[in-house]
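Example record

One chain of 575 residues, shown exactly as stored in the release files.
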Amino acid sequence: MIWCCERKRHGHCKGRLHTINDRVVQTIGIHNHEPRAEIAELITARTQMSQDAKTSSKATHDIIADGVSHLSNQAVASLPDLQNLKKTTRRIRQKAQNPYALPASRDTIIIPHDMTKTVANRTFLQILPMVAFFLGKSKKLYNEMFKWIIDMKPNFDPVNVKLDFEQAAIRTIRTKFPHANISGCFFHLCQSVYRAVERFGLKADYSADPLLAQQIRALPALALLNTDDVIDTFEELKQQFPIQGKPVLQYFEETYIGERNREGRPQKRPQFDVKLWNIHQSTLQDGHRTNNVVEGWNNRFASLVDCAHPNIWKFLKSLKKEQSMVEAELIQAEAGVRRPKRLVTERQQKRILNILNEQSTTNLDKVTSIEKQGEYDIALAYYRLTIELSPDRFDLLVRSYKYISLVYLDIHSISYALEYQTKALEIQQKKLMTRLKLNYDRVLDYLLQVLNIYKELHMYEDISRCCDSIGEVYFRQKIKDIAINYHFETLKVIDERFPSYLPYRIVSYEFVGKIYQSMRDYEQALKYYNDALNTKLKYEPLNDPTIVESYEFIGGLFHQNQEIVSKQLKCMIRV
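Predicted structure tokens for this chain:
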């Protein structure tokens, strides 16, 4: 086998090898360049990055970080710009995992043939169930969607519809399917109340005042009463509601109850009628009080996609896998496999039924008792809404995930409890990594942009300071070759623009000395530390603390270099 130098094309190198069974038998020509030991490192790292991009589901940043972490400083300095490396990695992943070109617009989407079959080679994307992509929540969009459904299935006439509190969807369903029984989700009712707590600035009071929290939680619990008893019970609750909670009470009245005049007659219709959000009958019939089944599917599918913004082909691949999973569940259901209700859920349901069926207690007492029974839907709604409203607050996310885990632990749902505890730990780990590593990338992006602006404006003093800052960031990332070059650039600017301003060199001298010291080049480190010390001695008083710092730097340098112990001792005595 004949091997040629990698620089044959661009560097016109004529070095060649002949091998037989991996044994060198002949060397022809000589290289016209010096050897580069880091090339093997670079090739290995780039190959591993490429392989990870093709086969793993790790984020692009994680792939690059893993690859860079094993490289020497010389190899890192020879890498392309990290942002360009990320773009290359994304292109490799796109080409390997999605062989089809991304469509330029919705009008140019053409589903290829192999996307019309599931993983199990069953028909996909051609018959029901249907998946609809919405760009908004307008009545027009809902009308179009239901028109398509009716065109595909003319006899489609749902009996029960459970949905979020979206006016456009409710009005469209009432128009298209006048006989359908529409009911709102109890989970989203709880969330809307807690949103009001957030909106009116009562979050701190809600957490600190148990009585206020109890009264606010009693508002969504009204949904469990008989429809005819809801308004009268609300009026009773209104009489004893804490003053600081009045804004939430007024919001609930305007949105879900309806305003009344002094005689108690209806004056203004609510945004959502009581019959829409009441779940009394579904509770008595052991039906669904929420659409958490859909929320659970959303979470499951999100974990399957494993990224925030998938392209169309990645989304369809994930949908194919999900379809296979659903078909497997249907087959098991037809075979008689049933998922039993959790024992704690059954006990909770019985306690609520006992409260509702109790004839000797008032409706207000029933609402208060239901609130005290540990209504897990209410608890989960509040915790999940905290997560939704605070996506960038690490502390709130971790706390909410842990609380959700405890709720699931209370109802003996171990798998869900473990899932949310794991999420809390992952966020804590990401927070730590952000502090240690990711912020450096942001700082460098900012500093490099600022440096370009300074250069365009010829602001030389700011250029030198900015170069020092960039060098320090690279040094903290242990990319020492690049770091020292920026400090040299600072010294060059000072030499050219401020030759007589020697004190300004001190910072750069000490930075360069630190870098050489970390690279164990003690001779060069000593040179720059001495330059800094001499400059200080020339311009600063002898008792200046910064002179003592220089002596300490030099003493520490001699401490590392055990061959010059006597000089170290002498320097420390001077300190």
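Notes: The chain has 27 helices and seven strands.
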